[in-house]
Amino acid sequence: MNNLTEAEAANELMRLAKAIAKHDRLYHAEDDPEISDQEYDALVRRNAELEALFPHLIREDSPSKKVGHEIAASPLGKVTHEVRMMSLDNAFNREEVEEWAARIRRFLSLDECEPVAITAEDKIDGLSCSLRYENGKLVRAATRGDGQVGEDVTPNVAHIADIPQELPEGVPEVFEVRGEVYMSKADFTALNAAQEEAGGKLFANPRNAAAGSLRQKDASVTAKRPLKFWAYGWGAASEVPCESQHDMMRMIERCGFPVSPFLTVSDSVDAMIAHYEEIGRRRPDLDYEIDGVVYKVDRLDYQRRLGFVAKAPRWALAHKFPAERAETTLEAIDIQVGRTGKLTPVGRLAPVLVGGVTVTNVTLHNRDEIERLGVRPGDRVVIQRAGDVIPQVVDNLTREAQRDPFAFPDKCPECGSEAVAEEGEVDVRCTGGLICPAQRTQRLEHFVSRKALDIDGFGSKTIAQFFALGWLESPADIYRLKDRRDEVLALEGWQDKSVDNLLAAVENKRRPDAARLLFGLGIRHVGEVTARDLMKNVHELSAIRSIAERARAGDEDAAAELTSIDGIGPSVVEALGDFFHEPHNVAVWKDLLGQIDPPRYEVETRDSPVAGKTVVFTGKLETMSRDEAKAQAERLGAKASGSVSAKTDLLVAGPGAGSKLKKAQELGIETIDEAGWAKIVAEAG
Ligand SMILES: NC(=O)c1ccc[n+]([C@@H]2O[C@H](COP(=O)([O-])OP(=O)(O)OC[C@H]3O[C@@H](n4cnc5c(N)ncnc54)[C@H](O)[C@@H]3O)[C@@H](O)[C@H]2O)c1
Ligand SMILES: [Zn+2]
């Protein structure tokens, strides 16, 4: 997003303003939304992000300045609010709540230790309504409208039992009580059932049902709808007789208004979050819908000082429950080709806020999954994202019996080779092997990756660029890059130092670890562990090919030599055989072996001084990566562990070692530095 040009940003802001205004109208004025709240929230977040990056592009008609929707077209009478009705800023996680609390302290210049009391109550999902009492009598009820001008619903609220027509003695002469008109879940279900029976309009949710029921021209329709009300604040008041939000709410409660049963005051973010979580746990059992918790600064003098931003008070925050499921549109299905040639379908979504983050892509896994869900571009789908789990499509809402299913490609979209699923396999793979550019660049990326050869300085961009220039056809070409030093240097973004670093990193791997190299070739079924198991037993990298070829040709001894290795099964033998059967691969292999000279792979279990011991690495290692150090330990027959305990035999501590070093010292565990470790490795051969 940061590399968006100004023109692109302005354009997108324009489109967002249009789209958001349209959905505001559908939702607020027509009670008939077209997209889910989570899709709407994703649009609003995107707008806010862009406005933060390009403050000078904020539009006159920016959605961030507007509350609700203007009611020009409403058949109801208009009421100008004496005190504006606002929206609320929202947060979706603890960090955002902490940020808000910190902002308040900064704004009020309070020091760290001074507590700020904050009220918390559940955020009920209905529509706001302002009730104006003069001399204790209800004179006007109004919806929020656009915040300045709302709709007159005075006759409509006459039938809502929670709204008193008269207040007790002693209330301010002019007093506007504000709160939410809502419908319980049970009443909503019953209403929709009755509507269905009568062939009437169905409501999307209790919130829309409450709004649609209240905003009726004919108040006798409202009278038949089971509406409820509870108060959360006030508007114009000829006098504010208390000094805190909480005391005011208790006074409003004494006037006969229901208020949130969860209303509390706390003075730390921890206590607020605990309360939020408690409300979240009770949420499924409540008979009304809530979508979060509202925090408000309790002291009214602080509220007055804090005031308002564009459309919401600075002193209040809605901490929403991030929806773990949300509805959105599947706009397209793209096919990606992976390193092993696997074709993975990726769903492109209309952005949607799920689990507090905006989701735009979702994996559809494979051809079978698409078939199971019956999805096609254009369908409405339900996305789930719980915790850190990657987002999933869990349901398709557009299932029509009569239509052709999505046609999964039978050609690789990258190279046009045939794409097939092996017998009994769900994955469809490109058969283009080493001619498929997608597979080739990703194989190269894998080859240099941390767990394989671990060559620093090769990002995917560099690989793609060198590949496009024809410099990196296969892994062996990496070792020939030294002949292109001047050409690399001539590319934009490269300096003497960066080129030399890259070339040095390559040279450093002329005698690579054979198991890592084998893993780096990306042969099917040959993962990290399998590669090591193979090399531990075969020892010489070059011998792998001849054994695999003999096994494939039917030599049972050769096959047995491999399958007798613990952890190696027939599928590995078959995959190795297939790999070396492909002339392309053999050429790549020979070429590569011509460039490198991996030492014989030995696991010294007897002679190594650390065999059978548990080693922990901590602090910064300067000549090797943590992964490499662990691999060395394993080769020497030691176990590398991540934490220090009484079972630890040896601690290797680099600069910056902290708690692990301290603990090892307390436990009297032998501790050496990186040089000491390098000596052990060198002596063990
Ligand atoms: N699906 C759509 O097309 C669509 C379109 C527009 C809006 N929306 C939904 O409406 C939301 C925006 O509406 P909004 O601007 O009214 O914001 P909001 O509903 O997130 O928050 C403000 C409102 O919360 C209510 N509220 C409930 N409990 C409260 C309490 N304790 N204290 C204060 N206020 C309390 C009030 O009515 C107040 O006006 C969006 O986040 C989205 O979920 C959806
Ligand atoms: Zn291909």
Automatic annotation (TrEMBL):
EC class of the enzyme, as a word: ligase
PANTHER family (UniProt xref): CHROMOSOME TRANSMISSION FIDELITY FACTOR 18, DNA LIGASE
Keyword Zinc-finger tagged: no
Domain BRCT residue range list: 605-685
Residues reported in the UniProt entry to bind NAD(+): D37, Q38, E39, Y40, D41, S87, L88, E121, R144, E180, K296, K320
Protein name, as recorded: DNA ligase
Domain of life where this protein originates: Bacteria
Source lineage: Bacteria, Pseudomonadati, Pseudomonadota, Alphaproteobacteria, Sphingomonadales
Protein family (similarity comment): Belongs to the NAD-dependent DNA ligase family. LigA subfamily.
Cofactors (names): Mg(2+); Mn(2+)
Listed EC numbers: 6.5.1.2
PROSITE patterns linked: BRCT, DNA_LIGASE_N1, DNA_LIGASE_N2
Function, as annotated: DNA ligase that catalyzes the formation of phosphodiester linkages between 5'-phosphoryl and 3'-hydroxyl groups in double-stranded DNA using NAD as a coenzyme and as the energy source for the reaction. It is essential for DNA replication and repair of damaged DNA.
Keyword NAD: yes
Residues forming the catalytic site: K123
Keyword vocabulary terms for this entry: DNA damage, DNA repair, DNA replication, Ligase, Magnesium, Manganese, Metal-binding, NAD, Zinc
Molecular functions (GO terms): DNA ligase (NAD+) activity
Xref: HAMAP family: DNA_ligase_A (MF_01588)
Binding site for Zn(2+): C412, C415, C436
Reactions this protein catalyses: NAD(+) + (deoxyribonucleotide)n-3'-hydroxyl + 5'-phospho-(deoxyribonucleotide)m = (deoxyribonucleotide)n+m + AMP + beta-nicotinamide D-nucleotide
